[in-house]
Amino acid sequence: MGIDDLVNQGKQFLDQNKDKIAETVKSEQAEDVSDKALDAAAEFVKKVAPDSVDQHVDNVRDNIDKHIGNQ
Questions:
Q1: Helix, strand, or coil here: 19?
Q2: Residue 14, C-beta contacts closer than 8 angstroms, at least 6 positions apart
Q3: Which of 1, 51, 53, 63 is most deeply packed, by most CB within 10 A?
Q4: How many CB atoms within 10 Å of residue 56?
Q5: N- to C-terminal Cα separation, the chain
Q6: What's the rounded Cα separation, in Å, for the pair 61 and 59?
Q7: Sign of the C-alpha dihedral, residues 47, 50, 54, 56?
Q8: Are 21 and 28 in contact (CB under 8 A)?
Q9: φ, ψ for residue 21, nearest 5 deg
Q10: Dihedral angle, C-alpha 7, 9, 10, 13, nearest 10 °
């Protein structure tokens, strides 16, 4: 099985399950997981980046959060 076969299987899986995938991405569980991951990533960036970018980091985090989960 080559890489093209794997890619095609992935595409078929996505096509066959796009409704379930969309439902899962908008679930309460996805919201909880994404909030924890986004909070951790944002805090890490704030620790290593200059304080002047903190607001930008928060804005990016919030924008991403709007597209994952149900809130």
A1: helix
A2: 21
A3: 53
A4: 11
A5: 41
A6: 5
A7: negative
A8: no
A9: -65, -45
A10: 160
The tokens describing 30, both together, are 């996805």
pTM of this prediction exceeds 0.70: no
pLDDT digits (tens, 9 = 90+) for 7-65: 989 999 989 998 888 888 777 888 888 899 999 999 999 999 999 999 999 999 999 88
Query: Given this model, what pLDDT does residue 66 score?
Result: 85
Q: Please give the biggest Cα pair distance in the chain.
A: 50
Residue 53 DSSP symbol: G
**Residue with the two structure tokens 């709007």:** 66
